[in-house]
Amino acid sequence: MRVLIVIALMLFWECGVSVAADLFLESRRANAEKIALMVLPFSGDPADAAQIALVERTVRADLLRSQHFSLIDPPPGLSRSWEGAEDAVRMAEASKAGAVAVAAAEVRKDGALLQLLGSAHETGKGTQVVGVQISTKSARGMAHRFSDKLVAHFTGEVGIAQTQIAYISDLSGKKEIYLMDYDGEGEIRITSDRSIVLSPRWSHDAKQVAYTSYRSGKPDVYLLDILHGKRKTLLAYPGSNFPPAWSSSGEWVVFSMTRDGNAEIYVMRPDATGLMRLTFDDANDLSPTWSPDGKQVAFTSDRGGNPQIYMMDSDGAHVRRLTFSGTYNTSPAWSPKGDQIAYTCRDEQKRLKICVMRVEGDEVAQVTEAGDWDDESPSWSPNGREILFASNRAGKRHLFAISADGSKLLRLTSNGANNTSPAWSPH
């Protein structure tokens, strides 16, 4: 019975809050300065026009979603090429249109592969600052790589266009683990357990996904190698075993299990050595998540009578409560910069929403808007600019991403299935 209760709690917690701190959100919207970039029409063999258009469209979408760029339309007749005596004239035209830089690419066939020759020039000096040659079978994958190169050069930030999202979907009729690109494309199923599956979690290097499955008749945790499709059992202790969160260094994983009765939090090395229990309480302690520096762990506990967010040192010391607004706060997710925690909160209408707070527990803000639906299971983008979550606002449960300041909501799934428990991969 204890196992069933804990499983029910886990399912519900994954599935009260103060009024949004408007000043908090507005302060995060303040950094609105964007790089004015002109993307020239991509060129190539007219016979490949459809693929060329796909690559260009994907690059443009990636750049806009990065939140770093404003895209400037090229003046009529401005060509892709920057070679020849008219370079200065072309640069002047681009600069006059407001662009501080110009990006362009040629897409062509290279045997069984596609090849992209991409470049970027600064209009002020007229010098080339980015030059790439990318060969791949995937037009969209090629586009993501080029846009990440542009983001890295102009901002110094690692782009997220090549990241993936793991999630649970009942598209096949059974709940299984799926992967998709960060923009919702390229959906693939990676498990065929035909059983209850819970909470996919990425390894620190994005090469593996851990998840709980009843494929053996009890809730064990499995580790799936994404590249090779190989699976191994990671946790099979008596009771319920929940998927771990990796420390950023990859040296440790933290997780919950009910081996000793109620759900408690443990750490161990990924090779299953060094097991150590961190929490000792009669309550259920679940959903642990590492701070980026590996020194602290945030988690959900009902030790105060209802589920709230707590924090402790990585050795289990100095446990303190972070959330005090509302009677239901669960599923903490630490931001990549380590200064904020996103979590599932419940508003005055008893609806689940996504909230964000400082790690000190102050400046709480409700990120998703009020409405007759539930938003849950937050997961940060690797650059900390977006929060991924599941919502039934469109009827069935689908995955959405929203800017961390509460703007720019983007729907990622529309496959007619229920899609839940999203996890954004590391870089």
How would a crystallographer describe the biggest sheet? 6 strands, mixed
Count of individual helical segments? 5
Counting helices, strands and paired strands, the structural category is mainly beta
Output the CATH homologous superfamily of the largest domain.
TolB, C-terminal domain
Percent range for β-strand residues: 35-45%
Shape, principal axes of CA atoms: globular
CATH topology of the largest domain: Neuraminidase
Topology:
Elements: H1 2-14, H2 22-28, E1 35-39, E2 43-44, H3 49-65, E3 69-72, H4 87-96, E4 101-110, E5 113-122, E6 128-136, H5 139-155, E7 164-169, E8 176-181, E9 188-189, E10 197-202, E11 208-213, E12 220-225, E13 231-235, E14 245-246, E15 253-257, E16 264-268, E17 276-277, E18 285-290, E19 296-301, E20 308-313, E21 320-321, E22 329-334, E23 340-346, E24 352-358, E25 365-366, E26 375-380, E27 386-394, E28 396-403, E29 410-411, E30 419-424
Parallel strand pairs: 1-3, 1-4, 2-4
Antiparallel strand pairs: 4-5, 5-6, 7-8, 7-30, 8-9, 10-11, 11-12, 12-13, 14-15, 15-16, 16-17, 18-19, 19-20, 20-21, 22-23, 23-24, 24-25, 26-27, 27-28, 28-29
Helix pairs in contact: 3-5
What does this 3D model show about the protein?
The protein is mainly beta and 427 residues long. The protein folds into two domains: 2-29 and 163-424, Neuraminidase (6 Propeller), CATH 2.120.10.30; 35-155, TolB, N-terminal domain (Rossmann fold), CATH 3.40.50.10070. The chain contains five helices and 30 strands. The protein has helices at 2-14, 22-28, 49-65, 87-96, 139-155, and strands at 35-39, 43-44, 69-72, 101-110, 113-122, 128-136, 164-169, 176-181, 188-189, 197-202, 208-213, 220-225, 231-235, 245-246, 253-257, 264-268, 276-277, 285-290, 296-301, 308-313, 320-321, 329-334, 340-346, 352-358, 365-366, 375-380, 386-394, 396-403, 410-411, 419-424. α3 packs parallel to α5. The radius of gyration is 23 Å and the shape is globular.
